[in-house]
Design goal:
FAD-dependent pyridine nucleotide-disulfide oxidoreductase, single chain, 2 domains, FAD/NAD(P)-binding domain, FAD/NAD-bd_sf
Length: 402
């Protein structure tokens, strides 16, 4: 009977985790009869989540079955609802509603994160988001519906709640998207609302002036220092009592790790992530490895931790896939390290800013930054072609530093 590696989640960490595991097994000459790798996800696609703020979100997916077939990884269509580390099984509900119990010898959890939606009155019922393809498409369809209504200030106003990375990219892309739908002469109003006193509170001092420039250039208003306390059919109300009339409210209030992490460890960080060892192993469950948005792990020896980003998830996935297979075969695992860090923020028609290092030293701005961002969004974060040799090479964690 073959040994089994299960990978839960087909986000960036899961897809590159499958590549990493398949590569180790291929190099060791291990066949599918000996070790079976299965990727579990609700759909056989990678949602290109960092692009959901753009227009045409329904196109922001990459098919996975040809790639998985090329590297000899099985796909199980379903959603994992339970993990038993004692029995070494996962419970999966398939698309037809049936429950399945799948056994594993090694498990790689890459179930990612979801938008944090606190219990603000009206938020769940009335606010839109760009958390996934389905949410982004729903927003796009809403804007199409508004375009058929008479011109009015409320119709033309969008309130974006959250001034972090996602909120900034959504807000700066909206003027172009709204004019494409409502007409070039529409009196567009985009309002970015943040609970803290600065735009992009986590960005640091170097990128922030460029974001402010972009906001001014694009006519985006910033309402800062007062969070949203309610959402209604007419707009949003802030903690200060200000009501902003808007027929569209977009929530961009931060991320939280998949709740599956609570089944692996009792102690989680503030984002719901599991603290893992250097090789991404869960200390309390040595047959389980974790990568991507569900893992809290240092990227270097200087005290920096991986962020919930595709940049960290892709490389962490390669390490996780390598290690889950290597551990099963009894060969040494690799400590995850990712010392290089870069940030690229899209700022709509203004351009983009690209920085390097944790202190975010600005390298490219405006059109040059936009070119870099488009390269990232359309090339670098997509899976490799379904060519076995190229795909397995893409799973090598150590080559990423070359």
């Amino acid at each position: 009977m073959s040994q089994k590696i299960l990978i839960v989640g087909a986000g960036f960490a899961g897809v590159w985790g499958a590549l990493g595991a398949a590569r180790v097994l291929d190099e060791a000459g291990v066949t599918k009869r000996d070790v079976e790798v299965t990727l579990i996800s609700p759909k056989p696609e990678l949602q290109i989540r960092p692009r959901m703020y753009e227009s045409e979100p329904h196109t922001m997916t990459a098919p996975l079955l040809p790639l998985l077939d090329a590297i000899g990884v099985k796909f199980f269509e379903g959603t994992v609802h339970g993990i038993s580390v004692d029995d070494k099984t996962v419970n999966v509900v398939s698309a037809d509603g049936r429950t399945h119990t799948l056994a594993y010898d090694r498990l790689l959890l890459t179930s990612g994160s979801k938008l944090n939606r606190p219990p603000i009155p009206g938020l769940a019922e009335l606010a839109f988001s760009v958390d996934c393809v389905e949410d982004a498409v729903k927003l796009d369809q809403h804007l199409d519906t508004l375009a058929k209504l008479p011109d009015s200030p409320a119709r033309n106003t969008v309130a974006v709640v959250g001034c972090g990375f996602t909120g900034i990219e959504v807000a700066t892309e909206l003027p172009k998207r709204l004019r494409e739908k409502f007409g070039a002469n529409a009196a567009i109003r985009v309002v970015a609302i943040g609970a803290q006193d600065t735009i992009g509170p986590d960005l640091g001092p170097n990128p922030r002036p460029f974001v402010a420039q972009a906001f001014e250039s694009l006519g985006i208003e910033a309402v800062l220092g007062s969070g949203v306390v309610s959402v209604d059919a007419q707009g949003v109300r802030t903690q200060s009592g200000k009501h902003i009339a808007a027929m569209t409210v977009i929530w961009a209030g931060g991320m939280r790790a998949s709740t599956l992490t609570s089944q692996l460890a009792s102690q989680l960080d503030a984002l719901g992530r599991v603290e893992v060892a250097a090789d991404l192993r869960v200390p309390a469950a040595p047959d389980v490895f974790v990568a991507g948005d569900v893992a809290r792990v240092p990227t270097d020896d200087d005290g920096h931790y991986a962020l919930m980003s595709c940049q960290h998830a892709i490389l962490m996935g390669k390490f996780g896939g390598h290690n889950v297979a290597a551990d099963l075969l009894g060969t040494p695992t690799l400590p995850y390290r990712q010392p290089f860090y870069a940030t690229c923020i899209d700022l709509g028609d203004w351009g983009a800013i690209y920085s390097e290092g944790w202190d975010r030293q600005i390298r490219l701005t405006h059109a040059e930054g936009k070119t870099r961002k488009q390269m990232i969004n359309t090339k670098w974060i997509y899976p490799p072609a379904p060519n076995r040799v190229e795909a397995l090479a893409a799973g090598n964690p150590q080559a990423s530093f070359g």
